[in-house]
Amino acid sequence: MHKTKFLFALFAVFIFSSITFTQNNIIQKTDTAGFYKLNDVVITATRTKANTIELANSISVIDSTQISNSNANNVFDLLKNETGISFTRQGGTGTLSNIYLRGANSSHTLVLIDGVEVNLTNDPSGVYDFSALPIDNIDRIEVLRGPQSTLYGSDALAGVINIITKKGNGAPKFSLLAEGGTYNTYKTQLGLTGSVQKLNYSVALSRTGSDGFSNASEKYGNKEKDGYTFNNLSSILGYNISENTEVNFYTRFTKSKSDYDQFGGAYGDDPTYVFNQEEFSVRGEGKLKLLDGNWNQKIGLSFIRNVRKYSYDTSSASIYYSHSLYDGRKYKLDWQNDFALDKNNLLTAGLEYESEETSSEYYAFNYLLLPDYASIFPKKDSRTLGVYIQDNFQAGKRFFSTAGIRLDNHNQFGSQITYRVAPAFMIWETDTKFKATAGTGFKSPSLFYLYDPIYGNKNLNPEKSIGFDFGIEQYLFKQGISLGATYFYNKFTDMFGFDYLTFKTININKAVTKGAEIYLHAKPFDQLELKVNYTYTDAKDMSPNSSDYGKKLLRRPESKLGFYTSYSFMPKANINAEVIWVGVREDIDFSTFQRVDLKSYVLINLAAHYDVLKFLRLNFRVENLLDTDYEEVFGYGTAGLSFYGGIKLMID
Questions:
Q1: Cys-Cys with 122: which of 193, 351, 358, 414 at CB 3.0–4.6 Å?
Q2: Is the Cα torsion angle 455, 457, 458, 461 positive or negative in sign?
């Protein structure tokens, strides 16, 4: 039987068995708010607080409890187990780390940290690199799937990952963490949170480092270790001026150094290849409630600067050496208004203005005895003004709908209109929800693609996407269980490609991704939680006149399974486990420029903590328990069986 038919047959069994079971266990509901406690309150889907049970959007949440219990060091590792996500890392921690939503390109996901758009303006594709982002001070992560440009503008063709930092509350709390483990890995972290009258604060400072292993896989004969060091600072300072007015000030700084290799596979080692990065972001935000809370305003001003430096020196082998610098900045002003027209209707309207700047320099010397080479990208900028409106409506506590439209105007390519509709219908008699969404997204051409002296093209249009999904969710409230299945389809057009006749970037590429997502979330009692998800993705290159037409997009697995369970077997202790199964993917062997299959693999990770005293916690983590030999990118290494442990002091 064809895989797709098999999947839909599986869905049918899954759905109807769930409904039948629930119909035999109907619960009389008098207070739906009580049942909402089994669901998450999210912000990303509508830019306002909303219960997931009232949303058609496909959204998943990694909450503060899961983040804390995981003992993970970085956000990338937390995201790998989520629904609809595939991932790649070009070697060990510290190397380029990409997330793909529903099979789309990694640059088609918008990443937000406390309202700051962190996609790199100094990168040609505008991707976000998760390599140096720690979990320090993070309260929750929301992953919203499907085109989202109506609310978020450029880059949200496939979805949004929204990372939210903890706010301080209550008496001052001080924490000190020290960890160590395999590959001479270490981490130290200081944290301080709390509030004093109207002032709240939350600060985290950390340093992480490791000797690492060879990014170019050791099985091809590479021996040189590639280490890294990260220094991170994140903070929130908030002040409640009055009952209806507050201001918040967010700051984040990262300084990292990572060893790279030239390429994967044989002879990829390069002990001189070093990547340095500094990133600084700041955001000021004010909130105001008017008309007895029926008109809420939020106005924010943010700035981010990212500076990346690469250098290597292989002149000892009479080849070449080079160094390069990429400097990017983004300024953004946003104003959001939420109008409660009545108890069933919330209207959201907003305005955003952003300005991007970037410049770069690349120098290569002694390249096979040819003349020295320099590529200078002079400072360029772009400006975008966007306005949007969205209506959230419900009827009879059964029908929930979100619909919105947006207009963006870019100083170079002109105007772009996007839209989104998302209805959901809840049958309370069986605790069953039917949902569907449809929308569009776009991605502005980067400054490099527009203005590079050699490859740039001022006539570029934005990349575009149109997508829809529909599904069913079943809630077994009495058992504390929810489960669901969703089918999705996304079409990407006007994607950026290369004209080999003119050497210019052009809008030529196309792609289609479609598939299905199944999830189960169970919390039968407070001490035990279980999450299971399966994603099937059919992602194909549909670019006309391309040798890859009809072929699979690289590095996207057709099948991926995620499993997570957490059990607090006593008030002082927790143990949790995750299993990630990734199916076969296709990649390119750049030594032959032929496609190769990357074999499927299973990762099992364990974590635990025990509070010896009220103020002293012991942490322990095992990664890749089975010591699986696998590749995320052809020719690049991955970590084997690894052990990490440490202590955490917590003083109130």
A1: 358
A2: negative
SS3 169: coil
* AA identity, residue 200: N
Write the CA distances from 162 to 31, 158, 484, integer angstroms: 31, 13, 22
Q: Is 595 helix (H, G, I), strand (E, B) or coil?
A: strand
Span 363-392, mean pLDDT? 87
Rounded Cα gap, residues 103 and 512, in angstroms: 9
Residue 427, SS3 per DSSP: strand
Query: Strand order in 109-113's β-sheet?
Result: 58-62, 138-145, 159-165, 109-113, 116-117
Q: Tokens 């930092």 map to which residue?
A: 165
| φ, ψ at 78 (rounded to 5°) | -70, -35
Q: Following DSSP, what letter does each residue of 310-377 receive, concatenated?
A: EEEE-GGGTS-EEEEEEEEEEEEEEEEEEEEEETTEEEEEEEEEEEEEEEEEEEEE-STTPPPEEEEE
Q: How far apart are CA 509 and CA 506, in angstroms?
A: 9
The C-alpha atoms of residue 305 and residue 252 are separated, in whole angstroms, by 11
Asked if 188 contacts 160 with a C-beta cutoff of 8 angstroms, the reply is: no
Mean predicted confidence (pLDDT) in 438-464: 96
For the segment 24-46, what is each residue's pLDDT rounded down to a tens digit?
Answer: 333 333 334 444 444 689 999 99
Residue in the block written with tokens 């996304």: 490
In angstroms, the CA 491 to CA 230 distance is 38
* Mean pLDDT (the chain, rounded): 92
Positive or negative torsion for Cα 7, 13, 18, 23: positive
Q: Look up the pTM and report it.
A: 0.93
- Is-contact 517 146, C-beta < 8 A? no
> What share of residues in the chain are helix, strand, coil (percent, to 5)?
10, 60, 30
Range 527-549 average pLDDT: 95
Is the per-residue pLDDT at 233 higher than 70? yes
Structure tokens at 14: 């899954």
Q: 601-613 and 616-623 as β-strands: parallel, antiparallel, unpaired?
A: antiparallel
What's the mean pLDDT in 76-83?
96
CB 21 within 8 A of CB 481: no
Quote the CA–CA distance of 424 and 435 in Å, as a whole number. 4
For residues 56-69, give the mean pLDDT. 95
Average pLDDT (407-412) is 97
